[in-house]
């Protein structure tokens, strides 16, 4: 019985180690993707493309709204929102990524 308990603990620890390794790899891939996106936007800003600035503004705005919406103690949010400008920023991001993809090909 003790040997079975020992093997169980070993397998559990090995499983936790493998999960931690995979989580670290996922975070690394996410960081690489973010670095690539930041580089693309930086290049666009250097080239005078104002849509790149809209990318950062829209991204921060959406992140902030997501954090507010995820709050456990938040039942109702009343936020003044000029939706057309945010939607315009998001569509500008799409155009920017398409343009950068075309230039990179």
Question: What would you note in describing this structure?
Answer:
There is one protein chain. By secondary structure, the protein is mainly alpha-helical. It has one domain (2-104). It has 3 helices and no strands. It has helices spanning 2-46, 51-70, 83-104. α1 (2-46) runs antiparallel to α2 and α2 packs across α3. The longest helix is centred in the first third of the chain and has 45 residues, at 2-46. The N and C termini lie far apart (62 Å). The model has no long low-confidence stretch (mean pLDDT 79).
Task: Give the secondary structure arrangement, pairings included.
Blueprint: H1 2-46, H2 51-70, H3 83-104
Helix pairs in contact: 1-2, 2-3
* Structural class by sheet pairing and helices: mainly alpha
Oligomer: single chain
Helix/strand order: HHH
Mean of pLDDT: 79
Distance between the termini: 62 Å
What is the overall number of helices? 3
Give the radius of gyration: 22 Å
How many structural domains does the protein architecture include?
1
**Largest sheet entry:** none
Binned strand content: under 5%
What would the principal axes of the Cα set say about the shape? elongated
* Helix content bin: over 70%
Enumerate the spans where pLDDT stays under 50 for 5 or more consecutive residues: none
Give me the count of strands: 0
In short:
The protein has 105 residues and is an all-alpha fold.
Provide key terms for this protein:
3 helices; mainly alpha; 105 residues
């Amino acid at each position: 019985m003790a040997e079975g308990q020992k093997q169980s603990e070993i397998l559990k620890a090995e499983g936790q180690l493998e999960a931690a390794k995979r989580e670290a790899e996922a975070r690394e891939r996410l960081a690489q993707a973010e670095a690539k996106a930041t580089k693309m936007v930086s290049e666009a800003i250097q080239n005078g493309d104002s849509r790149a600035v809209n990318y950062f503004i829209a991204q921060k705005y959406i992140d902030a709204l997501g954090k507010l919406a995820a709050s456990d103690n938040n039942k109702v949010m009343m936020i003044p929102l000029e939706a057309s400008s945010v939607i315009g920023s998001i569509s500008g991001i799409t155009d920017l990524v398409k343009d950068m993809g075309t230039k990179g090909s």
